[in-house]
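Email to the structure team, subject: Universal stress protein model.

Hi all, the expression group asked for a predicted structure before they design truncation constructs. Nothing fancy, just the tokens so they can compare against earlier work. One-line instruction: predict Universal stress protein, return tokens.
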Amino acid sequence: MPSTVFIQFDSPGAVHATPRRLHAAVGRIFDLPSGISTERARRIPALAARPAHDVGGPKPYSLGDMTQAPGRFGVELRLLDDRLLDPLDAWLAWGGVLYVGNGGESTAALAALEAQVLERVNWEDIAAADAATAWDVRILTPVVFTSKGRHIPEITAASLATSLQNRWWAWDRATAPDRVDRAAVAEAFAVEDRTHIVRIGLGMPPGGGRGRLSARRIEASEGSLRIRARDDADESQVRLFSRLMALARFTNVGSHTGFGMGVLRVEPTA
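Reply from the structure team: attached below.
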């Protein structure tokens, strides 16, 4: 069952929590412990839902909204599998200390004060959410798509639909919509694009011993969009897209999500 959780932390001061570092810190809660293979984990109920650290593709957890105030830091966690609430609850019971940083002196030790499950829904409920026809989309962390080894920073209705369908297919194939017809989606929707291109570093800081990787940068999109169904849109395409956009509040989109990228806030407006 897809779920969202909000955790409020006590912080020692201002937290420089880049999406990449925060995603990595959260991964230490949810990823399989070192030395445990996915095959072995499947036989152990307490570990069965946890992904391997180096698994290819998107993981069943992602970041959401973040808030910061003096002495406080809050983060929303989005889960595609509510079984991950169990390791989260166990981690909270042991004090819930989240280390955000590069391991050096600037690393912040955040201590959980409270946690609240915001939403927990069945896949069938998301599949039934087919009535929306317009959406405001705010990009919370930079978004990029990858096709045939090429990075594509531009965001379209078709790229969003395809990315969300792939996640649905991976985590609950029984309720997942059919494969997306990208041309049909592009024809059915108008997009008001208020995004801009930014350059994102994927490597380690200079001097981190990673050679050429330390300088690797790609282009991605930040900003916002408004997507609406055209007056003459195919109704079946509108219903399909509505279901997929309903999933967006529980996951991320695009590629390089292991760097904390691809987090959206999607609000139906019609």
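The mean pLDDT is 90. The two ends are 26 Å apart (CA to CA). Ping us if the truncation boundaries need rechecking.
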